Each structure stands twice: as structure tokens, then as C-alpha cells.
Amino acid sequence: MPASTVFTIANQKGGVGKTTTAVNLAAALAEQKVTTLLIDLDPQANATSGLGIEKQEGRSVYPVLLDEGEILEMVVETGRPHLFLLPSEVDLAAAEIELAQRQDYLLQLKTALAPLFDSGKYRAVVIDCPPALGMLSMNSLAAADHLLVALQCEYLALEGLGQILSVVDRLHEAGVNDSLDVGGIIMTMFDVRTNLSREVVEEVRSNLPDKIFETVIPRTIRLSEAPSFGQTIFEYDKSNPGSTAYRKLAKELIKRFGLKK
What we know:
The chain is an alpha/beta fold. The chain has helices spanning 18-31, 46-50, 62-65, 95-100, 108-118, 135-143, 155-173, 195-207, 221-225, 233-236, 241-257, and strands at residues 5-10, 36-40, 76-80, 83-86, 124-128, 146-152, 181-190, 212-218.
């Protein structure tokens, strides 16, 4: 089996559809029979609960970062074919402080996750980061092959895009992850009723035409409701425009990165 392709979905801003995208993109890849591991790196554990998985103390990447557990044993089945989860827990918040005190502090997560990446079990790995460019997010960028940026269709979001792209440059310059690239920009919360949404998409498309995905994710209340039922959008409302969009996005991702080779 080909080596895992590791995607991290990051943005320093909350409320941009990052976790919604991580969960539903991972589920859509799995639906396409791409064996996918979703890693919940956010101490709030919204991706974990969004899949209907109970949080368990000691079941996350946190004990492994403390050299107290086996990473392969932390993965859980989600009850969905081809989709697996490395859950999160509240204690993971402490890792922000503890990682900063380590040598090679930006590479701790990459080392901890290496057995998963090398196991040959997962074709795609999707990492959901906290809504800040703190120690966990930076470690995620150091461990990933590709950064996927979830970008809300509003002008203030464009400022944040410049910031996160500069972080990638800094990681290159520091030799932390020379191979990390911006795998793509996912425009989220697109409102068909407003000119603003269209203008923001067009601005990103004109500046980064080779990075933006064709698929835009619409603003729909059903996408917001699904996690409270522990369901993906495909389970909650399979005919919803959000469901159609994430399926199309998964197919774009498979094609762009050769995930079915």
C-alpha cells in the first residue's frame, strides 16, 4: 500500500468551518474507499464528538507525547467503512505548555505519529487542529505533507490567509518541514445570496489560482446541526448541498493528490 498522505487542516481563526471540513472531508474520502484516519488534535474534541465517539481519558495522542502509550492502540473504529479516528481529550490542552519545554519541540508530534504513517494502514490522514497557531497546530504543520486552509468567504479571512501562508514559509526557512506545501484552499460558508462571498472567492482565485479548490462549501444550517447528532452530513442529510459539496471536494482531493493510485 502507498505511504500515507498527511493533510493538516489549519487556520488561526475559529468558526471558519475547519472541523466541519475535517470530519466531512475524511468521511467523504472514506466513502470513496480511500482508507482514512482522522486525527483530532483539538482539546475541545469537536471532531471526536461530531462522529458520535465518546471522549475517553488517556485515549488521544497526549499520552504518547508523554511517552506513556502506544499510538496504534489509540485509534478507534468509527463504525463507518474505511474511516478511523484518533480521538482527542481535554488533557490535550496541557500539551501546548509541555511541548514548548521539549527539545525539538516542533517535531514531537511527527515522531509520535510516525508508526501510524508508516503502518501502511491509512492512505489518507486528515489532522484537525485547534483554532490557533499554537504549539499543537505548529507540530501538525511539521508532521504534514500538505496544508489545507479552510477559509471563510469574508474579507477579514483574507488577512488570516496571508498569516498562515507566511508560517509555511518560516517552517521551510527553519528546516522544520521542507516538504510541506499548501495543498489547497477550501472556501467555506459560501452564501449564494451575497456579492461578498462571490467577491472573496474571486479574489482568492485570481491570486492563488493553482491552490484554490473548484468546490466551494455552502453555508447551510444542516452542516452546523449534524455534529450535535454525532453524524456526518452524509448521514444527517444526504441530499443537502453541503453533502454534495464535500463529496465533490473529496473527488478533487483524490485527483489532485493521486489518493487512489
